[in-house]
Specification:
About 20% of the residues lie in helices and about 30% in strands. The chain is α+β, with helices and mostly antiparallel strands and about 170 residues long. The strands form two sheets. A four-stranded antiparallel beta sheet has the order 4-5-6-7, with no helix packed on it. The termini are far apart.
Length: about 170
């Protein structure tokens, strides 16, 4: 059995001859038309040293350069000493205007927050961004919110709360 395997392997190895002349001829033929090309390197600009005067510059290790600036309270911010109203605990997006009514020539709106119903009028606050109710119409409530921007300044933003149609 061993002898048979040795004979088979010898025959297989004998089939792998080193005569590769046709492949080498083809490779030489293909090589004749090829020419390598390398793009030239870009021209190097000369280095220009910048002058630095240590005496006239600021000290990079001063504490004022490391610590952030403390900003004083800007004008136009919300009144933080004011007593908070119940609807200021809810985000404006979660509140629903469900109705508008007139009582003694004053317009009142009915707003649903969670499962509770609240009666509000112009001058009340609602929403978590210090929203002041500025107008109530038959179909919406206009709210002026105070939002702090990236610079720490207070910016007014007008939002509207639309009347929710009854689902049938």
């Amino acid at each position: 059995m061993k002898r048979l395997l040795i004979i088979i392997f010898a025959l297989l190895l004998g089939g792998c001859s080193s005569d590769q002349g046709d492949i080498e001829a083809w490779m030489h033929e293909q090589e004749k038309g090829m020419a390598g090309s390398v793009k030239p390197l870009p021209e190097m600009k000369p280095y220009v040293a910048a002058k630095y005067d240590v005496a006239s510059g600021s000290d990079p290790f001063q504490a004022s350069r490391i610590e952030p600036e403390t900003k004083t309270a800007s004008r136009g911010g919300p009144d933080l000493d004011r007593r908070r109203e119940p609807l200021e605990a809810f985000p404006l997006e979660s509140l629903q205007l469900v109705g508008v009514m007139t009582q003694n020539k004053k317009v009142h709106a009915l707003v649903r927050a969670d499962k509770n119903l609240y009666q509000i009028r112009v001058g009340n606050y609602m929403g978590q961004n210090f929203g002041l109710v500025t107008a109530i119409s038959d179909s919406e409530i206009t709210v002026k919110e105070l939002v702090e921007d990236l610079n720490g300044d207070w910016v007014e933003r007008n939002s509207k709360l639309q009347l929710q149609e009854a689902k049938k």
